[in-house]
Design goal:
Elements lengths: L1 H9 L2 H9 L15 E3 L3 H10 L2 E7 L4 H16 L4 E6 L4 H6 L7 E6 L2 E7 L3 H10 L1
Parallel strand pairs: 1-3, 2-3
Antiparallel strand pairs: 2-4, 4-5
Helix pairs in contact: 4-6
Keywords: Disulfide bond
Protein name: Thioredoxin domain-containing protein
Length: about 140
């Protein structure tokens, strides 16, 4: 963010104004969230994600899984409703190490963490349970 601000400051005002016209307006009272759901491609990314965020949900999914496709837009919506919670997505076929680390035996599976401590976990595309556990974080 600071780097983008520095670049904008150095830009000639006519170009800066033209660029800023196309960016969405965000009021200072709104939390700024540039990415709703963060893709976690390897175990290092998962570790950093859990270290950086005090509250997080990790969604273990697979491209071939119909229930995963059904719950994905709901998960995305929740990420927008709860800006104080970080939402990550892990493809079990591409990140098998993380799937093994969290003992994932079915998809979709959701792991809820406070810091690096997993506090809850469930498998299935249950919208009500997902929302309740996000709220309880």
């Amino acid at each position: 963010m600071a780097m983008a601000t520095a670049i904008l400051r150095r830009m000639p005002s006519f170009r800066r104004n033209a660029l800023l016209q196309h960016l969405p307006k965000v009021s200072s009272s709104q939390p700024r969230r540039w990415m709703s759901v963060i893709s976690l491609s390897d175990s290092d990314a998962v570790d950093k994600f859990r270290t950086i965020h005090s509250k997080s949900v990790m969604y273990f999914t697979a491209s071939w899984c119909p229930p995963c496709k059904m719950i994905a837009p709901i998960y995305e919506d929740l990420s927008k409703q709860y800006p104080d919670v970080a939402f990550g997505k892990i493809d079990v076929d591409n990140n098998q190490d993380s799937a093994a680390e969290f003992h994932i035996s079915a998809v979709p599976t959701f792991v809820f963490s406070k810091g690096k401590e997993a506090v809850n976990k469930f498998s299935g595309a249950d919208k009500v349970q997902l929302e309740k556990l996000v709220k309880d974080l």
